[in-house]
Structure prediction request, 476 residues.
Amino acid sequence: MLVFIQTYPLACSVFLILADLASWHAVPYQHRLAKVAARLGLFLLYSAVIISAGLSPLDTAPWEDDSARHLAATALEIIWWIFASRTLTEVLGLLLMQRIGHSGRLLQEVIGAVIFLIGIVAAAGYVLQLPVKGLLATSGAMAIIVGLALQSTLSDVFSGIVLNTTKPYQVDDSISIDGVEGKVIDIDWRATHLLTGTGSTAVIPNSVAAKAKIVNLSRPKDMFGVSINIMVSPHIRPRRVLDALDRALQGSSALLPFPKARATVKEASPTTIEYTLTGFIKNLDKKADVRNLLFDLAYRHLEAAGIAWQSDVTVEPASRARTLLDEVKVLRALNSEEKNHLAQHMSSREYAAGQVILEENEVTDSLLVIATGVVSATVSDGRNSIEAGRMGPSEVMGEQGVLNDTPSEARFTALTSCVVYRIDKAVAREIMEQEGQIRNALKKLQAVRQHSSQSLLTEKPAAIKKGSFLGWLQKR
Prediction:
């Protein structure tokens, strides 16, 4: 075998190079450790082959009398330096990926470029016996010229290294760079690639990202901020607006109880006052849904408080009941005259925070419509009370008692001070006789609520893994 290698070093070397290329493309990326190990093993074999054939990468090729053999030997020595550069780059890249993850890819590419440059200079100096000092001087002058020409590109490269080292964001993080918001899908040597909410890709140069204001929406991982801004007429007292917006925030069960959601005055001008509602959620994927819900809740609670956005018009207390009927979905089949008639038979009642509006298993004698405030609906599983949802202005309660005199399956409690209008059962049934759509709407509402309650009660809690002292020691 040794005689064959010494006799046919070119054939053996070419075979090892082809084997390296084949193994590198055949082994999937998921088995990166096996890929690098195969390349390292083949490089060591290649080194052994050329050394056993009498070649040295640190010296010129022998056999100067045989030009063909001398040229082949020179090529093998140059290939050794390239092979060594590739192998060293992959080994360092594997170590970087294990220590700093995907962000090490950019650093690997830069280090690889430096290693290849050193390998080419070494091959020129040792194998070709070229004057390396002159070559380095010439390459230094060329580097200055190229550096000036590629100043912006080099700025992107080094800014990318800084970003990958300091790690203000990583792949799969949701970030905002100078107002451009999206999910990081790649960080290369020139730019950061973001997948925006519209499905498009935003490419931001690393030099711009390094100087810009970066907001990482994915940190911390268990709490994400969500906020909306609304404008209201400056003729309305801010305290009234803030009270209504606080009720809107309490009306969303998606917001975390801590840190507490807040409504604040952001800016004031002669034409408008801008308010900001800020809260925190557990799942970033629900941010858009929660924002939409907060806008809807803010609109409903402001309207319930008699406040119109960017308008000086306020709702008169005498017409509150009539205005409320326009917002009740289950009663939208009524025409204007029927709503005017019904509003005259509605009576209001105020509830303080914590007061029970409708008790569980109680058969109500009225259809209840929330005018202002937030109401919590809870169901019992026999031992504990579980919150099934929160309700706000224009939502109804007590449909079970009005439809078929059955008791309520939930307890409705005022989370904030509330105003609730009552429609007598006889009046409600008379309306249902006149408009069959209202009966169908109440039945559908009843079915949806019963299904939600049953789903909530039958939902199995997550299994709690019991720990042990031995397991704790094993994790240390």
In short: Confidence is low (pLDDT under 50) at residues 462-476. DSSP finds 16 helices and 16 strands in the chain. The CA atoms of residues 32 and 110 lie 20 Å apart.
